[in-house]
Amino acid sequence: MEMATVRHRPEALELLEAQSKFTKKELQILYRGFKNVNGLVLISCLSLFFQECPSGVVNEETFKEIYSQFFPQGDSTTYAHFLFNAFDTDHNGSVSFEDFVMGLSILLRGTVQEKLNWAFNLYDINKDGYITKEEMLDIMKAIYDMMGKCTYPVLKEDAPRQHVETFFQKMDKNKDGVVTIDEFIESCQKDENIMRSMQLFENVI
User: Fold this and answer.
1) Which of 69, 110, 90 is nearest to 202 (CA)?
2) What is the pLDDT of residues 101-141, one digit of tens each?
3) Using the 8-state DSSP alphabet, how is residue 5 labeled?
4) Are 114 and 189 in contact (CB under 8 A)?
5) Three-class secondary structure assignment of 140-171
6) Rounded Cα distance, 84 and 58, in Å
7) pTM of the prediction?
8) Apex CA 33: angle with CA 73 and CA 26, to 5°?
9) DSSP reduced 3-state for 110
10) pLDDT tens string 25-65
């Protein structure tokens, strides 16, 4: 007897359409990209995970292995771990098509508040509602490690810590050593560079 192949079945597109900010047609494009690499830079990066995993569900190790293909000049392992946790909202150790859609819905179509909430969740590693210097430094180091030694100009060893000190001076309004969600959002909204970067992928689909 042939063994049946268990494959992940995405929720009905109508339900995802209601839950996300994508149309049914866009969801169909995303699902094709989710299963096969397509030409969209952001989506192709993520959808390669699901080409490697025909079940439609990706675990963390596979996520790390494939994510590393896009950053061969550096070590993306730690950043991929943080990013995986941000997409794995139900904390079951895997990223499904639904997780993928809901994350992209925020990153591509969300309001400023929703995008900043998503970013705060990425930096709040232990999910206690605050960002500490140590947590922000862990993320910054992971980003710099991922970029590798091929950046120009060459980054100094203490660049991540300097970056964190600069951010904390701006964000930690009451100087209590942690950044709250309100402090984070207020500071980001006043930063023109951050606001511009949040608009980069709005028309990717």
Assistant:
1) 110
2) 788 888 888 899 999 999 999 999 999 999 999 999 999 99
3) P
4) no
5) HHHHHHHHCCCCCCCCCCCHHHHHHHHHHHHH
6) 10
7) 0.73
8) 130
9) coil
10) 766 666 554 443 333 434 555 555 556 666 668 889 988 88
